[in-house]
Amino acid sequence: MMKNLKIRLSMAAAMLLAVSSFVFAQSNETPVYQFVDDVEVNHTIVQNQGSSGTCWCYAGTGFVEAEMLRKYGVELNLSEMFFDRWAYKTKFEKYVRMHGEAANISCGGEVIDVLHALTEDGMVPNDDYTGWVLGEERNNHWEMHALINEYAKVVIARKNGKLLPYVYPKMVEEILNVYLGEVPETFIYKGVKYDAKSFAAKYPLDINDYVQLGAFTHKELYKPFNIHIPDNWTATMTYNMTMDELMAELDNALNNGYTVGWAQDVSDKGFSRKAGVGVVLTDDVNKIRESDPKAYKKMSDDEIRESIYKFETVMPEIDAVDDEMHQKAYDDWSTGDDHSMLIVGIAHDQNDTKYYKVKNSWGEVGPFKGYWYCSEKFVRLHTIFFTVNKEGVSKDMAKKLEF
């Protein structure tokens, strides 16, 4: 019961976060937080997941597009919904084969799922398959998702007295066709005719070239393990290391021209839609006073505490986030995997504090037009894992991990 509730809450949170993108206030005022980009890796444009829990698909597609831009010099706008179809069909089959146990048909997933989809089904340009067939100009998956899940229950109930494995794949395909549209058998790209698999073969990516990296104290260092989170439904292994090493590998990848897929938690109050930042603010009143004595001179302690998450000024963060603090957050669910984004750079704010530039999938909203800046402490605390090309991993770490 608790597991199912967590899954539903995670799904609802992801969708609500996406919906909230349409009510972000756009302002011409100078942002409270001001940044200088120190490193920015080539990547494609910000997209909008709309009313869907497909952040993983948008982050993963952006990751794949950035890899193709880096490797082949081609700037593509691929169809996220083509990859989402693969996920629904594959999850449905797994659900049935597991008799409805130890599996779920959530709308969530991970960045690397796009590489799985690419490997199995190929890829299609977004112009040829938007997934918008219901008179809308954005994703709206509420009804489709509910219908697929209810149909899955019908299938495993075996009301005909037996399972009908030659029926349910056709029905799932039809549901997806109704809500997302039929996938074109062929399409024209720059004057050449392709299908999904031949198009992927034109710009090949090998899924074996990509890894997930994490930092947890409950698992052996430098060994892969299956991290237990609902959205890791493909059971892709994560290589373990210390948090300091993980952050060093993040910097190494970005400094060498590789974007990084990021599975993390944005339910923290420090992830601000208003300010466009992710920070881990301190509630130490004395430290806050010391950060700007003039600004807080006339404020009471209670007034200062009330002002912490208003993001009217740049407030100080906690002193440090170590491995134990990160592990505790994972263990008590204060850090989970409720969102995926793409890390594209390194920056610093007006106080010379280090941040990471992150491409979100809520459209060009907020003070940085769809990008968020997340502090190093925020990334340390809320990271579940990174997805990166093995070439972006340092030689010393690759040796430790034996790949």
Low-confidence stretches: 1-27
Question: Counting H and I runs of at least 4 residues, what is the number of helices?
Answer: 14
Largest sheet: 11 strands, mixed
> What fraction strand?
5-15%
- The structure class reads alpha+beta
Broad shape: globular
Overall pLDDT, averaged?
92
Helix percent reads 25-40%
Write the element-wise H/E pattern from the N-terminal end onward.
Answer: HEHHHHHEEHEEEHEEEHHHHEEEHEH
Radius of gyration: 22 Å
What is the distance, rounded to the nearest whole angstrom, between the alpha carbons of the first and last residues? Answer: 39 Å
Q: What is the count of β-strands?
A: 13
Would you write up a description of this structure?
The chain is of the alpha+beta class. The chain contains 14 helices and 13 strands. The strands form two sheets. Strands 1, 4, 5, 6, 7, 8, 9, 10, 11, 12 and 13 form an eleven-stranded mixed β-sheet that branches. Helix 5 packs antiparallel against helix 6 (168-180). The longest helix is centred in the N-terminal third of the chain and has 19 residues, at 2-20. The radius of gyration is 22 Å and the shape is globular. It starts with a helix and ends with a helix. Residues 1-27 have low confidence and may be disordered.
Summarize the topology.
Elements: H1 2-20, E1 35-40, H2 55-72, H3 80-97, H4 111-121, H5 142-157, H6 168-180, E2 187-189, E3 192-194, H7 196-202, E4 210-214, E5 224-225, E6 238-240, H8 243-255, E7 260-264, E8 271-272, E9 277-278, H9 285-291, H10 293-296, H11 301-307, H12 323-331, E10 339-349, E11 354-359, E12 371-375, H13 376-382, E13 383-389, H14 395-401
Parallel strand pairs: 4-6, 9-12
Antiparallel strand pairs: 1-10, 2-3, 4-13, 5-6, 7-10, 7-13, 8-9, 10-11, 11-12
